[in-house]
Design brief:
5-stranded mixed beta sheet; alpha/beta; about 40% helix; about 400 residues
Length: about 400
């Protein structure tokens, strides 16, 4: 008889292949896909026990599902979390994490530099339900401290931020929060769980869009919330159960299988991103390169302290503002224009006109988003091909404005 697998005794890459597996009586090698809305019970007594929570079995796919649970258990092992709950999308995870913790009359402090939808929840949606919010410069610890009120319940931040890749001192922000009993939620999408482990720095909750690196192949939507068992039980479980943003079993199966290759993909993408960032800094037409792994990054020392690498995203500015950025993006042959990120394919977007389009010019500049800013998500292609593609695209900045761009 083999000993049962103990995920605590193996390293992350092994956990991502074997952790959390539930096998049926058929003994399948790959994890099973349980496409069912509900479950049957042996008796009315068992149904009652399931609903009371004294029998730990499954009830209904809106509450839990065997395939979804495998994904939750496996990513919790990677993140070092006691528990996880999956959601239909990344924004459903952010929404549930915030609304599950807050009531009318509460107050939230968040960094100004956020993904557009995250900032919409913080500064527009929450106030509609009586939750006040304050936005601060995330790199200025004094602003976090000054923003605290007696009714402040949650700090929310991204690090690195979308799209300008600012890196915030998570442990220092947590220390400010804990002095006042404030809970901290960190969006770790850009760093990925391979390059940063926020829970080790003290936050109460970490959220991901699994649509990004965790799927990493442009196939399906999803999100996940991670924290202690107590945090998930008190703030997340009932909110998800009663409101219904459940991850589908099929999507859970897709991202569960994706976890097996996550270390390989992110390590390769990070190595490539570092090489591409260094090359961009030498190319004519580029006025600024922002990459957490470069020594010229404003928070390089913080990144070195709390990250295991610069991760897969690069932000860079080009000459000519919006027209120059569009010219470069349109001239790319390998790198595709898309607002997604973390994909095996390299993707580029112009944040001022896509992910952050709804903000005023003044708000964009306050977040560091200039008209010439481009955000590049580095994929699995050969980095030298990506550098060649960027170099030829940047040459279009030197062409007459009426010149035609030929794509191959």
């Amino acid at each position: 008889m083999k000993k049962p697998f103990d995920p605590s005794r193996v390293r992350p890459a092994t956990r991502l292949v074997h952790g959390g597996t539930i096998r049926s009586e058929f003994g399948e090698t790959s994890e099973a896909l349980f496409l069912t809305q509900g479950h049957v019970y042996d008796s009315a007594e068992q149904a009652e026990a399931r609903f009371k929570g004294t029998d730990p079995g499954f009830i209904y796919a809106r509450f839990s599902n065997p395939t979804v649970q495998m994904f939750e258990d496996r990513i919790a092992l990677l993140e070092g979390a006691e528990a996880a709950k999956a959601t239909a999308t990344g924004m459903a995870a952010v929404n549930a994490a915030m609304f599950g913790q807050l009531s009318a009359g509460d107050h939230v402090v968040a960094c100004k530099a956020l993904f557009g939808s995250c900032r919409y929840i913080i500064e527009t949606l929450l106030p509609r339900f009586g939750v006040q919010s304050t936005l601060v410069d995330g790199s200025d610890l004094a602003q976090w401290e000054a923003a605290v009120r007696p009714n402040t319940k949650v700090f929310f931040l991204e690090s690195p931020t979308n799209p300008t890749l600012e890196v915030y001192d998570i442990a220092a922000i947590v220390a400010i929060a804990k002095k006042s009993g404030i809970k901290v939620t960190v969006d770790n999408v850009f760093a990925t769980p391979m390059m940063q482990s926020p829970l080790a720095l003290g936050p109460d909750c970490v959220v991901y869009s699994t649509t990004k690196h965790i799927d990493g192949q442009g196939r399906c939507l999803g999100g996940v919330i991670l924290g202690s068992k107590q945090f998930i039980q008190d703030n997340v479980y009932q909110y998800l159960r009663q409101t219904g943003p459940a991850m589908s079993p099929f999507n859970a199966w897709v991202v569960l299988k994706s976890l097996e290759t996550l270390p390989l993909r992110v390590e390769r993408q990070t190595t490539s991103a570092a090489k591409v960032a260094d090359a961009l800094a030498t190319l004519p037409g580029v006025t600024k390169v922002i990459y957490p792994g470069r020594k010229d990054h404003p928070q390089y020392e913080i990144a070195q302290r709390q990250m295991r690498g610069g991760s897969t995203l690069i932000a860079f500015e080009v000459e000519g503002g919006k027209a120059g950025a569009f010219r470069v993006a349109n001239a790319l042959n390998i790198i595709r224009i898309s607002n997604n990120l973390g994909d095996s394919k390299s993707l580029i977007t112009h944040p001022p006109t896509t992910t952050h389009d709804r903000f005023t010019p003044e708000e964009k500049l306050e977040m560091g988003i200039t008209d010439g800013l481009l955000r590049l998500s580095v994929g699995l292609e050969d980095p030298d091909d990506l550098i060649d593609d960027l170099a030829q695209a940047l040459k279009t900045l030197e062409w007459p404005h009426d010149a035609k761009i030929v794509r191959i």
